[in-house]
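Weekly sync, protein design subgroup
Attendees: M.S., D.O., the rotation student, P.L. (late)

Item 1: inverse folding check
M.S. brought a backbone from last month's batch and wanted to see whether the design step gives back something sensible before we order anything. D.O. pointed out we never logged the input encoding, so this time it goes straight into the notes. C-alpha cells as presented (371 positions):
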C-alpha cells in the first residue's frame, strides 16, 4: 500500500548520527522514505583531555579581556573537565572578569548555569555576526579567548590578530567522522544520481564531512550540481546553512532551529516544487509527485531506468532528447549502450502507454505533450 502523507513519494537523505530515530519517525510518519548516511560519529565530540588542560592553563596564565563562547556543548564539556582538575573556580573567575560574547542561546544557557553573564549575543546565532560586532573596534593589546566549536577557528584568530588582538583558541573537542563511512558513501551516490529529493543536515560539521567524503569518491562536482539544481539541502538553522555558502549551494532552514520545524518546512517545500508538473501527454494527465508518477490519478510504478528517461524528457517537455543524452541520464550501473536506452524507453511506454513517447527518426525521443 502506498504511504499517505504530505511527503509520500519523496525520498529524503538524513546525515544525522544522533536523534536518528526521532527524525526518521517524523519523516516516515509523513509518508517519506528515508536514506540514512551518518556523516559524523555517534559520539562525534572527542575531548583530548591533555590538550584541553594545557589550553586551560594557558587561559589562566594571563587576564582575559574578551571571551567568545560558540557552543553550549563545548562550554559544558570545558567546565566539566575543569571541575575534574579542580580548576573550575579559577576558570570561572578568569571569564567573569572578561567581556563575554556568546554566539547563541545554547552557549548563553551554559554560561548562565555557571553564573556567567554574556554582554552581547546576536539574534541570528551566527558566529560571523559576533565577529562583525568586533570588526569596528580597536583591539590593540586586547587578549581574546575563543572557544572553538569542533572545527578549527584559526582563520578567525588570524582576522582578530590583524586588528591587534592577542588571541588564544581553546579546542574543547574535535568532531569525528562516522565510524563506518559506507552508508555515507551510499548516500553520496544517491545525491549525485538524483535519487533523493532532499537531504537534511543538523550541524555544520556534517556538511563539511559529507563534502570531504564526496571529494574522496570523486563525485563532489556531481553532488554540488545536484544540490544546486534538483536536491534540496535542508538545514536545521542558519549556522548549519552557512557551511554551504562556500560551495554555492542554496539551502532552506526554518525560523526556529528545531528538528520538527525543519521537517515541517519540507512538508511545504517539496510538494510546492512539484506544483505545475501536471502535463497533458497523449491525452492523459501526467503528474510527478516526488518520485511517484501518476497517470490520470493512478500511480504508475517505474523502475530506475525508465524513470530516469522520463525525468530527462521532462526537462523540456515536448523537445527532442538524443539517445546519447538519455544514455548519460541512466542510473550508474546500467549497461552503457543505446540498446539500454531503447529498453528503458520501451518500459516507459509500457507504463505510460505506447503513444506517450514519440520516436524522432535519427534524432531521439520526445514526450507527446498536448497530443
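Designed sequence read out in the meeting:
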Amino acid at each position: 500500500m502506498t504511504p499517505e502523507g504530505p511527503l509520500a513519494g519523496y525520498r529524503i537523505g538524513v546525515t544525522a548520527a544522533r536523534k536518528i530515530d526521532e527524525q526518521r519517525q517524523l519523516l516516515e510518519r509523513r509518508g517519506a522514505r528515508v536514506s540514512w548516511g551518518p556523516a559524523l560519529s555517534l559520539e562525534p565530540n572527542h575531548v583530548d583531555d591533555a590538550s584541553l588542560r594545557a589550553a586551560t592553563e594557558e587561559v589562566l596564565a594571563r587576564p582575559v579581556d574578551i571571551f567568545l563562547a560558540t557552543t553550549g556543548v563545548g562550554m559544558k564539556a570545558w567546565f566539566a573537565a575543569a571541575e575534574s582538575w579542580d580548576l573550575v573556580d579559577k576558570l570561572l573567575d578568569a571569564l567573569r572578569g572578561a567581556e563575554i560574547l556568546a554566539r547563541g542561546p545554547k552557549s548563553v544557557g551554559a554560561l548562565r548555569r555557571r553564573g556567567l553573564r554574556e554582554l552581547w549575543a546576536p539574534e541570528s546565532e551566527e558566529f560571523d555576526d559576533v565577529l562583525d560586532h568586533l570588526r569596528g573596534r580597536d583591539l590593540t593589546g586586547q587578549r581574546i579567548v575563543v572557544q572553538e566549536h569542533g572545527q578549527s577557528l584559526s582563520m578567525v584568530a588570524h582576522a582578530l590578530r590583524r586588528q591587534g588582538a592577542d588571541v588564544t583558541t581553546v579546542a574543547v573537542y574535535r568532531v569525528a567522522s562516522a565510524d563506518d563511512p559506507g552508508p555515507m558513501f551510499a548516500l553520496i551516490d544517491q545525491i549525485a544520481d538524483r535519487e533523493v529529493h532532499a537531504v537534511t543536515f543538523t550541524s555544520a560539521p556534517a556538511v563539511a564531512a559529507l563534502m570531504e567524503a564526496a571529494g574522496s569518491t570523486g563525485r563532489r562536482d556531481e553532488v554540488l550540481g545536484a544540490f544546486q539544481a534538483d536536491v534540496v539541502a535542508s538545514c536545521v538553522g542558519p549556522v548549519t546553512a552557512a557551511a554551504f555558502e562556500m560551495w554555492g549551494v542554496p539551502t532552506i532552514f526554518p525560523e526556529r532551529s528545531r528538528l520538527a520545524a525543519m521537517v515541517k518546512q519540507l512538508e511545504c517545500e517539496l510538494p510546492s516544487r512539484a506544483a505545475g508538473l501536471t502535463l497533458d501527454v497523449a491525452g492523459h494527465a501526467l503528474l510527478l509527485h516526488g518520485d511517484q508518477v501518476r497517470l490520470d490519478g493512478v500511480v504508475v510504478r517505474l523502475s530506475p531506468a525508465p524513470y530516469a528517461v522520463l525525468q530527462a524528457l521532462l526537462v523540456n517537455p515536448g523537445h527532442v532528447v538524443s539517445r546519447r543524452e538519455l544514455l548519460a541520464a541512466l542510473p550508474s550501473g546500467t549497461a552503457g549502450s543505446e540498446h539500454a536506452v531503447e529498453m528503458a524507453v520501451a518500459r516507459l511506454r509500457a507504463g505510460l502507454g505506447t503513444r506517450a513517447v514519440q520516436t524522432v527518426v535519427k534524432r531521439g525521443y520526445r514526450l507527446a505533450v498536448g497530443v
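Discussion: The mean pLDDT is 89. The chain is about 45% helix and 20% strand.
Action: P.L. to compare against the previous round before Friday.
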